[in-house]
Automatic annotation (TrEMBL):
May be involved in the metabolism of insect hormones and in the breakdown of synthetic insecticides. Keywords: Endoplasmic reticulum, Heme, Iron, Membrane, Metal-binding, Microsome, Monooxygenase, Oxidoreductase, Transmembrane, Transmembrane helix. It is found in: Endoplasmic reticulum membrane; Microsome membrane. This is Cytochrome P450 4C1-like. Gene3D superfamilies: Cytochrome P450 (1.10.630.10). It comes from Dinoponera quadriceps (South American ant). Belongs to the cytochrome P450 family. SUPFAM superfamilies: Cytochrome P450. Heme binds at C449. GO terms for cellular component: endoplasmic reticulum membrane. It is a peripheral membrane protein. InterPro entries: Cyt_P450, Cyt_P450_CS, Cyt_P450_E_grp-I, Cyt_P450_sf, Cytochrome_P450_Monoox. CDD domains: CYP4. The gene is LOC106749785. Its cofactor is heme.
């Protein structure tokens, strides 16, 4: 009995010591953060209990409500004892974004590492600096121009797929997002890897797996107990995730190895007929890698290509979907787009060239305004590597700051009538006095999106192909949102399409 009492006493002492340590740690953090505005929270659990009681939609609406409650552009949220400081004032984003010190991403990005490894999205420090410098040249304008033919071909296949869908139920509103996802996947596979998987025409193991893995990743992000690897990978969903990873990683490695063999046998100069090949991003990356003093390993190459795939299809498809939703609810602006298209293309049905696309200035402003209201990535995180003074507050090293792009884009102090869709906000005369960090759909500074020019070229090409054939009308005027990595609608964006030859 004495031994049992002694053991119990030891365990009680250990438990009490742990609790005291946790309470002390929580107190010290809150003391450091006492000047940061925040909603009321509870010791140790913070706002976690409040958030767990909410649906995904309610969580995002709570996030957007910070704009009304915290006029100074800063808000503190506690996830347990972990503080996250939300920033949504342009002047505050201007402090964090250009920093070459505060480059490390937050915990959300750690959950992407099983898929993306230490690719450009998830890496930090000297690894990130090296890879950014290595990959940067593969995205310059001259290289993007060569992809115009691929983009037009895939956009044309998309319009044919939509025509078939409309023929099934003429006049019925349809959700085109699944078609957009397959189109952008087609585009990124051919431009990033040089592989035509025909995702819009046939069901392949790769396209099915990448769609499923995207859904599993989002589920994990919204389920905190899935964040523990030991628990997640012991469950059926975690085993499915691992199986999907093996398929995707195997496919990417196979493509890389085949590219290397071709380069050795043909020196990468052409096909058997001597015709010059159009290079994919992977070819260009391999070119750069061969010249580099510290070349990437096979796994590091795979991580970069998987990052291209991850970032290059989902976010662009979402942006196109939101643009059509906005035009379908703002028919006067849509009519101006149609007038511009007719001026540039006349009555021809030839694929759009880069030169013609560059003339579509009103469509460009429509795209910018859509990304203002519905940025594909609504929040980006940084983990501070040093103390940072923001306004009257010093945020301590090690704190995660969440740069809320969507709230910065909807801040009424910067954007009058912020929920109104108005492409003319981006006329030169209306933009010249605006803080450049008031509009950052692709983030800003050294960690901005390296593929933003490519993404905008894809978006403009696809929108042009659709709007040259049809007028669009949205069924809903408002759609609830959910945003973790990507800003998505809850439910489907339903659109009605009318051929341009009729009204």
């Amino acid at each position: 009995m004495d031994i049992i009492s002694f053991v119990l006493s030891i365990w009680c002492f250990i438990i009490i010591s742990i609790v005291v340590s946790m309470v002390r740690h929580d107190y010290m953090i809150r003391r450091k953060m006492k000047n940061v505005p925040a909603f009321k929270s509870y010791p140790l659990i913070g706002h976690a209990l409040t958030l767990l009681r909410m649906t995904e939609q309610e969580q995002f609406e709570w996030h957007l409500s910070f704009l009304n409650h915290f006029k100074d552009g800063m808000c503190l949220v506690f996830l347990g004892s972990k503080p996250v400081v939300y920033l949504f004032k342009p002047e505050f984003l201007e402090i964090i974004c250009p920093s070459t010190v505060n480059l490390e991403k937050g915990i959300v990005y750690e959950l992407l590492k099983p898929w993306l490894g230490n690719g450009l999205l998830t890496s930090a420090g000297t690894r990130w600096f090296h890879d950014r410098k290595l990959i940067g040249p593969t995205f310059h304008f001259g290289i993007l121009d060569q992809f115009a033919i691929v983009l037009s071909e895939k956009a044309e296949i998309l319009t044919k797929c939509l025509e078939k869908e409309m023929e099934k139920c003429p006049g019925k509103a349809i959700d085109i997002f699944p078609f957009l996802i397959n189109a952008t996947l087609d585009i990124i596979c051919e431009t990033a890897m040089g592989v035509n998987i025909r995702a819009q025409e046939v069901v392949t193991e790769y396209s099915t797996t990448i769609h499923r893995l995207s859904k599993l990743t989002l589920e994990r992000l919204f389920t905190p107990w899935y964040w523990m690897d030991w628990l997640y990978y012991s469950m059926p969903v975690g085993k499915e995730y691992k199986s999907a990873l093996n398929i995707l990683h195997g496919f990417t490695k196979e493509v890389i190895n085949k590219k290397k063999v071709i380069r050795k046998t043909k020196n990468g100069k052409g096909d058997d007929t001597g015709k010059q090949r159009r290079k994919a991003f992977l070819d260009l990356l391999l070119d750069q890698n061969e010249k580099d003093n510290a070349p990437l390993t096979e796994d590091e190459l795979r991580a970069q290509v998987d990052t291209f795939m991850f970032e290059g299809h989902d976010t662009t498809a979402v942006a196109i979907n939101w643009a059509l939703f906005c035009l379908g609810n703002n028919l006067e602006h849509q009519e101006k787009v149609h007038e511009e298209l007719e001026q540039v293309f006349k009555d021809t049905q030839t694929p759009a060239s880069v030169k013609e696309l560059s003339q579509l200035k009103y469509l460009e402003r429509v795209m910018k305004e859509t990304l203002r209201l519905y940025p594909s990535v609504p929040i980006v995180e940084r983990k501070l590597a040093e103390n940072v003074k923001i306004g009257d507050v010093t945020i301590p090293e090690g704190t995660t700051v969440a740069l809320s792009i969507i709230m910065a884009h909807r801040n009424p102090q910067v954007w009058p009538d912020p929920l109104k869709f108005d492409p003319d906000r981006f006329l030169p005369e209306n933009s010249k006095h605006r803080n450049p960090y008031a509009y950052v759909p692709f983030s800003a500074g050294p960690r901005n999106c390296i593929g933003q020019r490519f993404a905008l070229l894809v978006e403009k090409t696809v929108l042009t192909a659709i709007l040259r054939k049809w007028r669009v009308k949205s069924v809903e005027t408002e759609i609830p949102l959910v945003g973790s990595l990507i800003l998505r609608p809850i439910g489907n964006v339903l659109l009605r399409f009318t051929p341009k030859t009729t009204r």
